[in-house]
Amino acid sequence: MTTVRVVLAGWRVYLPAVLLTAAAQALLVFADPVPARSWSFAELALASFALVVAAITVIAAAGAGRVRPALPVWVAGLGLVIGAAAVLSPWLAPPLLLVGALVLPPVADGAPRPVRTAFRAFRVIPARAVAGLLVLLVVAVLSWAAALLSGLLVTGPLSAAVTWLWFGVLAVLVLGWSTALYRRAADLSRRVGERPRTGP
After folding, report:
1. What is the pLDDT of residue 194?
2. Which pTM value belongs to this model?
3. Distance between CA 79 and CA 92 in Å, rounded?
4. Whether 176 contacts 6, CB under 8 Å
5. Residue of 193, 114, 131 whose CA lies nearest to 3
6. Distances (CA, A) of 194 to 51, 165, 190
7. If phi over 0 gives left and psi between -120 and 50 gives alpha, with beta otherwise, what is residue 10?
8. 26 with 157: CB under 8 angstroms?
9. What is the DSSP string of 80-103?
10. Mean pLDDT in runs of 10 for the chain (200 residues)?
11. Which own/partner contact pairs does 12-15 have at CB distance under 8 Å and 24+ positions apart?
């Protein structure tokens, strides 16, 4: 299973999820809200977070081919952790996002120990796992930097739509990669476990 096959297999789910999320996020900033300590801004922020949780849950579930009740809880929890880390330093977000992407496929698959299972690929197929992680880390950092820069230079619904559209595409690619990596590692581990033992 490759990233391309995962993405192509779920494109009927990924496409509307990405487009609807980008459109909804653009609508949330249509009135050009100003960050402030108010209920209205808090409601908009909560709605934006809920949209992200829903979109990532749908994308991860489509990659796994099933929906687990724990999946949205994990997505929300990881989102809160990443958000808190980004407050400390915006550059903590990209690597944590990739860690979260590694954890979600085993969660969606119902693995009993998803965090430990998430990093099994680095033991089973280390070269492939590390190479993919480094490439995606560079893409994630560049995308994050572009988003921060565009937020300073361009504002409004159009900027929000383009930003969330790109983040949606990136989420599909990253979760497609992590899902393919998880399945590949699981298949190899299963084959090793089923291999007959020889010797005394």
Report:
1. 41
2. 0.87
3. 13
4. yes
5. 131
6. 42, 43, 6
7. alpha
8. yes
9. HHHHHHHHH-GGGHHHHHHHHHHH
10. 86 94 90 68 89 95 86 96 90 91 93 89 90 92 80 70 90 94 87 50
11. 13/58, 13/59, 13/62, 14/59, 14/62, 14/172
Amino acid at 141: V
Structure tokens at 198: 């020889």
Orientation of helix 93-109 relative to helix 70-88, angle to 10°: 170
Contact 106, 118 (CB under 8 A): yes
Sign of CA pseudo-dihedral 123, 127, 133, 137:
positive
CA distance 25 to 161: 7
Dist. CA 175–CA 6, nearest whole Å: 9
Q: What does the alpha-carbon distance between residue 12 and residue 105 come to, in Å, rounded to a whole number? A: 19
CA distances from 146 to 41, 150, 151, 169 (A): 24, 6, 8, 15
DSSP 127: H
Q: What would the two tokens of residue 175 be?
A: 């979760």
Residue pair 52/20 in contact (Cβ under 8 Å)? The answer is no
The 3 state secondary structure assigned to 164-188 is HHHHHHHHHHHHHHHHHHHHHHHHH
Name the DSSP class of 161. H
Tally of CB atoms within 10 A around 39: 7
